[in-house]
Amino acid sequence: MQFFIDTANLSEIQEAFDLGILDGVTTNPSLMAREKVVGKEAVLNHYITICNMVDGDISAEVLSTDFDGIIEEGKELAALHPNIVVKVPMIKDGIKAIKWFTNNGIKTNCTLVFSAGQAILAAKAGATYVSPFIGRIDDSGWDGIDLIRQISHIYTVQGMQTKILAASIRTGNHIIACAEAGAHVCTSPLSSILALLKHPLTDIGLAKFVEDAKKMSN
Ligand code: E4P
Prior knowledge:
Organism: Terrimonas ginsenosidimutans
Radius of gyration: 19 Å
Protein name: Fructose-6-phosphate aldolase
Number of helices: 11
Bound molecules: erythose-4-phosphate
CATH superfamily: Aldolase class I
Pfam family, one: TAL_FSA
Subcellular location: Cytoplasm
Strand content: 15-25%
Low-confidence stretches: none
Number of domains: 1
Structural class: alpha/beta
Keywords: Cytoplasm, Schiff base
Helix content: 40-55%
Distance between the termini: 45 Å
């Protein structure tokens, strides 16, 4: 499973990259706004900066919700760098646009996916990635991991090539469950990635090794 980081914060991206396990980055308008990236030029430059930091797929989301607008914005984003993946919302014009981008060799990430039916449509349109939002599904009382499992099964039996990019990750346990359920990629906040490092027995064991190591050095 590939590891993407879900942020527009450059120091968090650098920290995950320095770990040596980072395969890509996803952003969205809320994450860009959180970093106070304002104005078209600043937004485009921010994407270029991220592309220069991480050699992997970088999702950049369109703001338009109509076919013509999505195509115009997507072409501009894709022209920024070969690693840009155009992130398109799961709406009717979004599906039409994903089909257009697929036919024109532009990679896409179909976002805001909450059902298997939506994931089937995204794959039929040729999306490179489909992003089920598992945390938001959990928040609403359903089971996000069940959806990953269901999409994984459907894509396997149907031979669909779209990659499942599990999004809206809240915890390290979400990442583990996504790996088990068949996600190809997990995009997570830095805190969830770092949570995977932690186990109390590791801390206790290391403290003992450090203590005993002192006895070896006199
Ligand atoms: C997906 O690509 C989105 O950027 C993101 O995972 C949404 O997560 P949230 O539900 O924590 O906002």
